[in-house]
Amino acid sequence: MSALTLSTSSAATLRADAIVVGVAKGPKGPVVAPGAEAVDKAFDGKLAGVLETLGATGAEGESTKLPAPSGLKAPVVLAVGLGDAPAKDDSFDYEALRRAAGTAARALTGTKKAGFALPVEDAEAASAVAEGALLGAYSYRPGGNGPAKKGGKDDKAAKSAPLAEIALLGAKPRDKAFKAAADRAVTVAEEINKARDLVNMPPNDLDPKTFAAAAQTAGKEFGLKVEVLDEKALLKGGFGGIMGVGRGSDAPPRLVRIAYTHPKAEKTLAFVGKGITYDSGGISLKPAGHNETMKCDMAGAAAVFAAVVAAARLGLKVNVTGWLALAENMPSGSATRPGDVLKMYGGKTVEVLNTDAEGRLVLGDALARASEENPDAIVDVATLTGAMVLALGNRTFGIMANDDAFRTSLYEIAEEVGEQAWPMPLPAELRKAMDSPVADFANMGERMGGGLLAGIFLKEFVGEGITWAHLDIAGPAYHESAPFGYTPKGGTGSAIRTLVRLAEHTAAGDLG
Ligand code: BES
Ligand code: MN
Ligand code: ZN
Q: 3-192 has which CATH code?
């Protein structure tokens, strides 16, 4: 990942390959944002005018490269759009800063070092800029992250290498709050980028076994307790959901428990992730056009994994247990058939009417198992339904819960960290659509409200009295169109920031 430093240099004296400045959309054309005073001065105070001449407006997503005037050490100025200028006395929205920093970092692909002279009034703003830049600089590099070297035979690789060094200007390095905010941003961005790598890995390289091994490696590195149930242990333990989904594949399933504990923690959170390393649909095979991106179906497990590791690295005063329900959903002579009845962990039986509704089966087992430890709250994260994508689109995840206050808290937390999310209901009447003549219930019912129905299915496996929420990230987990802000193509790391902030609030005792 790119390196981040807090620099005391001014934008004029910093030795770098480029200086990033912010430009906002004012009522009468582009306005240069605070933080860029030294750069504007080098342009004789005419930077806004120069930008306007070049057609810049300050709109979000816009970036304009200029040759630097002689007063600057850096050869290039990159002006990045911040969107509408805030009202007088208001500051820029953190998410606007995060996105602009991401756009700038991506525009500087192939550059070695850039100074970011964006408006950072407080530590939170510095954190947003740092996070946006580190996330925006990301690109999936199957061969690893080599530094950008100019010239020679690896020139092509150098041109596509992520921005190597980010110097945050104006962000008081000796101020404790700024330093802590920057450190937090680095940790969280690093774990998000690792999760993106897992999602982007081809499914022939990442199967349940290799995913579990990655959790074990991280466990050793960061002092987490990791337990892996293999197919023998899952069979013996009665995990009929995970086994039923995984049995069609040559790559057998796993259930990973990865736990972070703090000696003084008063609360315990359980995060449960859907980890289908490839979803072909199974015997209810997905048609061509619907299976090309289904390596992303483990994004929930990747998010949970990242959040637990981040909580540990941040040393939060809360216990966080991650459950990764890993399986590959494939058709074969040994695969579960539509019509089969599975006995889930805890004893409930499920008639599998559609083998493509596999996420709820692996999650049912994992939720029942997580409930046995009686955590203060459970949050599951899953690329669960196409219906949620139809409802909320490609950028927003749905939040369902068995507790109105908890759902509202998660919604507010998502907003606080700049993740788009929306509360969704769990209408009780949908439950009877899953009635089955041969089992406790079926794994599907009516098509209408499919995302909510899946949530109602999961609720059956949550222990009595445990506060629970379900995040359906099927839309935002994997980004197929052009990158924007700090969101790259491919795996996005959706829900990680929300989970980490939930753990922080829980540690601080902010939630009931
Ligand atoms: N993994 C899919 C859901 C999905 C769809 C994720 C699009 C990301 C993008 C899930 O396992 C699935 O196939 N769900 C079915 C359920 C149906 C058969 C009841 C769906 O949504 O069509
Ligand atoms: Mn499926
Ligand atoms: Zn799936």
A: 3.40.220.10
